[in-house]
Each structure stands twice: as structure tokens, then as C-alpha cells.
Write a structure and sequence with these properties.
single chain, four-stranded mixed beta sheet, D-Maltodextrin-Binding Protein, domain 2, 11 strands, five-stranded mixed beta sheet, Arc Repressor Mutant, subunit A, 41% helix, 3 domains, WH_DNA-bd_sf, alpha/beta
């Protein structure tokens, strides 16, 4: 759109005068003289070739043309002032809704969120955790980080981190685990996927048929590992997500055997166009992972 010449000083002088119905009060607001305001209004009336005020002995009254112009200018100046305030105070924020499987949130993302906030202060990041079941469309999510093979209908998936599973337990339990077969005598702490322990035992060299043991099923690896910390049994979980517990010695890995049944993925709806905030989060996430 090609704009005609906009006499901004004159328009501002008119808008202030019209709100106050006084050149004097407009001058006080604009920090100029009353004569300067009156002069600018007169210039605008000359340019438009119509009077905008009726000059009365005790003040001003808008003409029909002035009444038409005032609400447009007031709204425009209010919007400009609001936008300048947001930009000037760096308070413009773009909302980004991300659903994160709890294990990844606690084990990897949360310790690094400060870095993301420092780099992208304009992003209003809103996190919600889930137990690997995320309804991106129904929950209004921009992204969902979840565990699996990357095959989710209608979604674009980008690999983030592998997540091999290994046995973890407290040192007291580990002391009685001399071979992988010894875990058969312990309580298994496992996810709703019954094949995870089967695959791990096969990878550890046990025969395909083996006696099942007692087990407790969890919908969250965080709760599962917490149960392991309490001595409830042996957990099969991704060590990469629990470095604090392993580094402190609260939990140990009695065996080197690990099995990979999936990894962590960044997913979004294929129909969802990527916003600036989404691109910023994705780029930061991949850079941090590959650092």
C-alpha cells in the first residue's frame, strides 16, 4: 500500500487536542507550547481543507470531520504506543506449547532450560509432561517429545537421542547379582511394554524361555527409577536419563548389557507450519544434543 504524506506532528497535536478539547492541555501532554499545538492543528486543517474544531470562547468543539478523524487516530496511536512498549522493554513473547515425556523432561531438558531462556527470551515456553501418550492436536501442542521408533501417524518426527535400556538398582541388590540370570529372582520394575525385559534377557544370553518373576508395572520411568531407589526391585530404564542417580552411586548398573527398542523424537503435526518460536526451539534442541 502506498501511503500519502502523513503529517505525524499535526496528527498527534490534533489527537491530543481532541481528547482534551483544549490546546493548552494538549500542549502540556506533548511538552510543547500552546501556540505550537494550535499551529500544527491549523496546518492539518489547511492540508485537509476542512475545519476540525469550532473555536469557542471557553474551549473547543469537534466538527463532524473532527469526530470522524479522532477515533481512528486514537486507536492507531494507542496501538503504536503498545507495540513500542513491548518492543522497547523486550517484552514481546511468542507462546510455545511443548509436551514432553516425563523421563526426557527431568533427565535431560530441565537442567538445560536456563540456557534456552537466555538465548530466546521472547519465547514463552509452556511445558506439559506426559507418559508417552500425547495428543498433539487435542492438547494444542506445537511439539511433542516422546519415546518410540518415530512412526506416529500424521506427524513429522525428528530423532533426538537414542535411549538404550539397562538394568539399574541400588548397591545392596546389585551385590547379589552375579550373573544376568540372577535378576530372575528379583522383582522387575518395568513399563507397560512387556517385551523390554524379554529383549534385555535375550541380549544378556539367556534362553528364549525362562521363568517369569514378580513385576510391578509403571507408566513413567521416573516413578520406576524412584521405586528402584527405594529398593523395590531392579529397573530397566535408560541410564542416559538418570546421570545424577548413577553418578552419586545411589543406583548402579550391575551389567553392561543394554538393549535399544527406540529413542526420543521431536514430533509435530505434518500440517502444522513451523513458527519462529518452534524453529528456535528445534534448532536449540538439536545444537544442545550434538554439543
Amino acid at each position: 500500500m502506498v501511503r500519502p504524506y502523513l503529517p505525524l506532528k499535526a496528527l498527534r497535536a490534533f489527537e491530543a487536542s481532541a481528547r482534551h478539547l483544549s490546546f493548552t492541555r494538549a500542549a502540556e501532554e506533548l511538552y510543547v507550547t500552546q501556540a505550537a499545538v494550535s499551529h500544527q492543528v491549523k496546518l492539518l486543517e489547511t492540508l485537509l481543507k476542512v475545519p476540525l474544531f469550532k473555536r469557542l470562547p471557553r474551549g473547543l468543539m469537534l466538527t463532524q470531520e473532527g469526530e470522524l478523524l479522532l477515533p481512528v487516530l486514537k486507536s492507531s496511536f494507542d496501538q503504536i504506543a503498545h507495540t513500542l512498549e513491548r518492543v522497547g522493554e523486550s517484552s514481546y513473547r511468542e507462546v510455545l506449547n511443548v509436551g514432553v515425556v516425563g523421563t526426557f523432561a527431568v533427565g535431560w531438558l530441565l537442567p538445560r532450560l536456563g540456557d534456552f531462556q537466555r538465548q530466546y527470551p521472547y519465547v514463552d515456553l509452556r511445558l506439559s509432561t506426559h507418559n508417552n501418550r500425547a495428543d498433539i492436536a487435542g492438547e494444542g501442542l506445537d511439539f511433542a517429545i516422546r519415546f518410540g521408533t518415530g512412526a506416529w501417524h500424521g506427524t513429522a518426527a525428528q530423532p533426538l537421542l537414542p535411549a538404550s535400556l539397562s538394568v539399574m538398582c541400588i548397591p545392596d541388590i546389585a551385590a547379589r547379582l552375579n550373573t544376568p540370570a540372577d535378576v530372575l529372582g528379583e522383582t522387575w520394575l518395568r513399563s507397560y511394554r512387556a517385551d523390554e525385559w524379554t529383549e534385555w534377557l535375550l541380549a544378556a544370553g539367556l534362553p528364549r524361555s525362562f521363568p517369569m518373576t514378580n513385576s510391578i508395572v509403571f507408566d513413567s520411568s521416573i516413578a520406576m527409577v524412584e521405586a528402584a531407589l527405594q529398593g523395590a526391585g531392579v529397573a530397566l530404564a535408560p541410564p542416559l536419563m538418570f546421570p545424577r542417580q548413577l553418578n552419586s552411586g545411589a543406583l548402579v548398573q550391575p551389567f553392561d548389557t543394554a538393549v535399544s527398542l527406540g529413542g526420543y523424537w521431536l514430533t509435530r503435526l505434518q500440517t502444522r507450519p513451523e513458527t519462529h518460536a518452534m524453529a528456535s526451539f528445534r534448532e536449540w534442541l538439536l545444537t544442545a544434543i550434538n554439543a
